[in-house]
């Protein structure tokens, strides 16, 4: 289990573009990649327009599924079933903004002040709170050939206090 927990930590530190899967009004799936930053409770924060399709889907149905995937062969991924919402409360949005801003500025420069994400602004800070987490890992034979690729659930109570 410790190896899987460590693998999950590595993925979260290295990968920041996360596809967020939502459900369209007609029941079909929709997936949107967003730049995401995580806090110590594994809550994921991103900024989006409230009129974008994934944001409208979240307003109607808060269930989302995220895949944080290391694209190097056999390095697996992290899967998160979560509940997501726009943060309209200035205190909650401020926390999410600060976490997202620290990371985003490392890659893209300033994302602006909090007031650019509240009230009549064109974007909002969103938060996804994890409900279940799995790590994907491959097993190889003596020749290095992948023989099994499986998901293993990591109980939140084990993963979260250790981050």
Q: What would you note in describing this structure?
A:
With 163 residues, the protein is an alpha+beta fold. It has a single domain, classed as Pnp Oxidase, Chain A. Helix content is 27%, strand content 39%. The chain is built from four helices and eight strands; from the N terminus they run αββββαββαββα. Strands 1, 2, 3, 4, 5, 6, 7 and 8 form an eight-stranded antiparallel beta sheet that branches. A hairpin with a 5-residue loop joins strand 7 and strand 8.
CATH architectural designation: Roll
The helical percent reads: 25-40%
Quickly name the level 1 CATH class: Mainly Beta
Structural class of the helices, strands and pairings? alpha+beta
What do the pLDDT scores average to? 88
Strand content: 35-45%
CATH topology type:
Pnp Oxidase, Chain A
CATH superfamily annotation: Electron Transport, Fmn-binding Protein, Chain A
Domain unit count = 1
Strand count, sense and barrel status of the largest sheet are: 8 strands, antiparallel
**Helix-strand pattern:** HEEEEHEEHEEH
Shape: globular
Number of helices: 4
Please mark out the parts with pLDDT under 50 across 5 or more consecutive residues, or reply none.
Answer: none
N- to C-terminal distance: 15 Å
Using only C-alpha atoms, the radius of gyration works out to 17 Å
């Amino acid at each position: 289990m410790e190896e899987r927990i460590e693998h999950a930590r590595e993925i979260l530190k290295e990968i920041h573009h996360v596809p967020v899967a939502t459900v369209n009004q007609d029941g079909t799936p929709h997936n949107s990649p967003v730049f995401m930053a995580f806090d110590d409770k594994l809550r994921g924060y991103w900024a989006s327009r409230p009129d974008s399709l994934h944001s409208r889907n979240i307003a109607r149905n808060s269930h989302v599924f995220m895949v944080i995937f290391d694209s190097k062969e056999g390095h697996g991924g992290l899967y998160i079933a979560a509940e997501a919402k726009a943060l309209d409360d200035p205190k909650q949005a401020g926390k999410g903004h600060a976490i997202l801003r620290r990371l985003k500025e490392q890659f893209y420069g300033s994302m602006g002040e909090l007031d650019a994400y509240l009230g009549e602004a064109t974007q909002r800070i969103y938060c996804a709170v994890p409900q279940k987490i799995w790590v994907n890992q491959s097993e190889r034979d003596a020749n290095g050939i992948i023989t099994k690729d499986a998901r293993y659930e990591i109980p939140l109570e084990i993963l979260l206090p250790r981050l």
